[in-house]
Inverse folding.
């Protein structure tokens, strides 16, 4: 299982063009280390779109969903550093989701990713989950060019 933990926080967002260089420096050298110092945060990654929007996708792998409502996380979220406060003003269109890891297949992380968001038809959640976890996803990492596949709920 290439993902660490049983849950993840997924974020998608843009940054105003004039702040991109400083954002990437801040995210790499302050924000990511700060988040990973919170108990239960296991790994963080930032992905950049080759084209289209949003420009950024960030994933924080956590021990369990409760980490994302813990006192330690809320303390950092509600009391940002001066640099964090400065950078947040440059964010545009951010979406943030707290997800359980329903399934994770493969042996590692790749250099490119594809995020597909969807909502099952009402009443079809269980059969779709079963199909994804038992039939569709387990074989994906064996396909040329694919290293892993994950289902977040």
């Amino acid at each position: 299982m290439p993902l660490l933990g049983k849950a993840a926080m997924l974020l998608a967002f843009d940054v105003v063009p004039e702040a991109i260089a400083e954002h990437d420096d801040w995210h790499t050298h302050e924000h990511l280390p700060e988040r990973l110092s919170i108990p239960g945060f296991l790994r963080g990654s930032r992905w950049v779109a080759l084209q289209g929007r949003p420009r950024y996708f960030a994933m924080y792998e956590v021990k369990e969903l409760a980490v994302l409502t813990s006192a330690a996380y809320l303390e950092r979220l509600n009391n940002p550093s001066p640099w964090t406060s400065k950078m947040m003003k440059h964010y545009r269109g951010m979406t943030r989701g707290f997800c359980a890891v329903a399934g994770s297949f493969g042996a590692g992380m790749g250099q490119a990713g594809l995020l597909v968001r969807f909502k099952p038809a009402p009443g079809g959640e269980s059969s779709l989950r079963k199909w994804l976890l038992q039939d569709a996803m387990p074989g994906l990492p064996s396909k040329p060019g694919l290293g892993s596949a994950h289902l977040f709920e």
Q: What stands out?
A: Residues 20-36 form the longest helix (17 residues).
